[in-house]
Amino acid sequence: MSSQELPIRNTNTDRLTNTEFSLEQCKEALRGERIPDSLGTQAARTCVVRGIRHHYAFAKSPEVIRLCEETAVSFPKFSRARNARLIMSNEIPDAMAPSAQPYCIWHPDLASEETYREVAKKHPALRYQVGRACAVAGFLDLYHELGLLPDVSMAEEARESKMGGENSRAIYESIMSAPCRYAPVSPAFLNGDTTCYSDLCRIFREGRYVWVPRPPTDIKKWWEGDDGDLGGNITVDNDIGVTLGRAADYDEDEGDSEDEDYVCTAAEVAQVYQPLPLDLPSMCKDLLILVAAYEGNIDRYARLSRPYMNDTEVLCIVRGIYHHTMFARWWMGELKSNPGRLSKAPKGSEREIKTAINARRIMNNDISGTFEPDEIPFCIWWPLIPRSSALDDLAKKCPEMKESIAITCIFGHYQYLYQTVMEDIKPSWYLWMAAQH
C-alpha cells in the first residue's frame, strides 16, 4: 500500500487520548506502514517517530503531515522526526519552529554536502548539527566554512567515523589541536559519551535490547519516560526496533556493518591501569566502567558511567560496594540524587544495590536505621566480619537474619553468640557448609 493510500483510521485527538496498546500496530508503525490507533503511550509514539525517521514515504504521507500539524505544540517530536527525515532525503523544510528543529540529521541516512550547506544557511540554529554530520561524512570544506567552536561530540564522531576517511580524521585533528574544547559552549573533554554514527548503526542492527534487555512482547515498557528527555537518545526514537536480531532493512553494504563484537585494543586496555587522560582516546569504555565499579573507584566510575546500566555493571557495582565503604556511602547518595539512572537499569538493580549497601554497613558494625524486608542481605561475613557485639544487637533488631548471623559467628569464631542464636533456628545446609570451611 502506498503512503497516499494509507487510510485514516482515527482522529489524532482520539489517538492521543487512547492508551490501549497494540503490538502489531506498533510494528506496522516501525515499518512505516501506518499510525497506530492509539498514541496515548510513550511506546506507541516512539514507534511512530522511528517509522518517520526511517521511511521517507511515511514521512511524506498526508496522515503523518496532519499528525505533525496537529501535535506541533503537544508532541513536537513528530515534527522533529519528519524534518530530520526530509533533510536526510535532501529536502530542506521551508520553516521550522524551535521545538520542531531536529538534533540528529545524519542517521539512518546522510544528506549531500550541498544539502547540509543549505540547511546551515536557511536554518542557522542547526549549524552545530550540520557540523556533526560533516564529522560523520567527512565534509571537511563545509566544516571549516561553518566556523564552529571545537565541539567534543564532533571530535568523537570524527574519530570514530569510517566513511569519512582522511577528511573526518582532519576534522578530529582540527578540534583536538584547539587549546580548549566545548560541549558546545562550556569547556569540556572527550569522555566517550557521544552516541556516534557507528553506535546508531549497531543499535539499529541489533535492536534496543542490547541496551535495555526486555522480552519482545514487553515493547510497551521499553521506555515509558519523558518525551523530552534526550540524553543519548539523539534520534528521539529510543533505539526501538522490531526484533532482537539484524534489522531486515539494514543495508550490509553501508559502513560500520560488521557483525563481530568490538575488541578493545592494547592501548584501550592500558587505560585500565593508567591514569585517565583528560581526553579519552576511544569510545570503548565499557571495560573501564566495569573495572571502576568492581574496584569501588568513585572518581573513575563517576566520570565514566553512562545514564544507563546493564546486568554486568550492576554485578560489578555490588562487588565494589561489598569491598569499599566509601563506594557504598557514595551510592547511598546516588540513589537519592540520581533516581532516573536506576529507572533505566535492569529490573531489581536498585534492590540489589541497597542490599549490598546494607551488608557493607553491617560489616562495618553499623546497624542503625531500618532494613526493608526485600533489602535484607544474606552474606554479612565477607570481606569483613562484624564484631560480636554488633551481631548480638542485629539479632535482636532483625531476628529474620539469625541464620546469616550464625554463619558469621562460625567464620568469626564467636562460639557463645553462635550458641545463643542457634536456640531459635534449625541447622541448615548453609550452616553445615560454613562449618566445613
Describe this structure in words.
The structure is a single chain. This protein is mainly alpha-helical. Helix 7 packs antiparallel against helix 8, helix 8 packs across helix 11 and helix 21 runs antiparallel to helix 22. The N terminus is likely disordered. Strands 1-2 form a two-stranded antiparallel sheet. The chain has 23 helices and two strands. It folds into three domains: 219 residues, no CATH class; 82 residues, no CATH class; 60 residues, no CATH class.
Short description:
This protein has 437 residues and is an all-alpha fold. Helices cover 49% and strands 1% of the residues.
Shape: elongated
- Tell me the β content: under 5%
Largest sheet: 2 strands, antiparallel
Order of helices and strands: HHHHHHHHHHHEEHHHHHHHHHHHH
Question: How many domain regions?
Answer: 3
Q: Going across the major beta sheet, what is the strand order?
A: 1-2
Q: Helicity range of the residues?
A: 40-55%
The helix/strand class is: mainly alpha
Overall strand count: 2
H/I helix tally: 23
pLDDT < 50 runs, ≥5 residues: 1-8, 206-217, 222-230, 244-260
Mean pLDDT: 87
Cα(first) to Cα(last) distance is 70 Å
